[in-house]
Fold this sequence. Notes:
By secondary structure, this protein is an alpha/beta fold. The chain is built from 13 helices and eleven strands.
Amino acid sequence: MLIETVTRAIADPTRLRIMRLLAHMELAVGELAQVLGQSQPRISRHVGILCDSRLAERRREGSWIFLRQAVSADAGRGLRAAVAKMLETAEEEDAAFGARCAEDRRHLAAIRTAREKGAAEYFARHAGEWDQLRSWLSPPKTVEAALLKCLEDRELKSVLDIGTGTGRIAELLVDWSTHMVALDKSTEMLRLARARLQQFPPQKVELVQGDFAALPFGEAEFDTVVLHQVLHYAQEPALVLAEAARVCRPGGRIAVVDLATHEREELRHRHAHARLGFSDEQMLEWLTESGWAPSLPVALPGKGLTTKIWLAERNGRTVGASKSRKVKGTP
């Protein structure tokens, strides 16, 4: 019975503490062990019980397993939401439990610091390469302001940031959204994004590992899809745009921020670009064939490279992945 499974899951003080920690941020099993001062195998057993009762959820990211609270206290009706609300109230009214939870949250500062240190070390290793590329582009603040201007005329609602990288665009748009999903294939990039986005509640921001050519979501889950400086990594851009259309609701929008056509071959070798930018004709054709109704693009010239913003609305037409591979201009 559901009630027996759930009550058994919350019948241990360590599991109660885990639930309260997950209400504040998504954590790896090893990070939970560090905060709670217990062995990783023991924490894994507690996590298994919470996940079996569906009070928590696992998500694999490379060799790491991350945990998040399955249902928040403000999620509405239901037994699991009631449990989350009960624990929130218990922290306020039970002095001993509240003190223990407060101490646990203080230990989260070490986790946040470690994440930020790892991000800083990564940027230091790659600073020279990125500095040269940035010098050719329109300034990031100019691009970000232009992107916000393109999207400001309506609510973003549920947003998917495909190829989130360091999480900067997710951070830029999160306050304009009801829910933000930041997706990247690279575990290294997701660690950087996690360090940047960890100040937001886990109910607001979700980090997911996945491939932009095979998105791990059902149809019509999002209202806004963003691809910021990521499509040039795609061997089959039309397939990526078709996948974006599949997961976007009719009437939703896509914003593709990327480079206009250029001839800097060094970007293939130094930055692994599969495409040397895109022409308007090529992009508009791909968007149309993938089920989008494009608007006029916005051009942002830099010192050698031009950034474009292609905006389009989901028209509701179903386009399969097999058709996307047949779009003209796609090898």
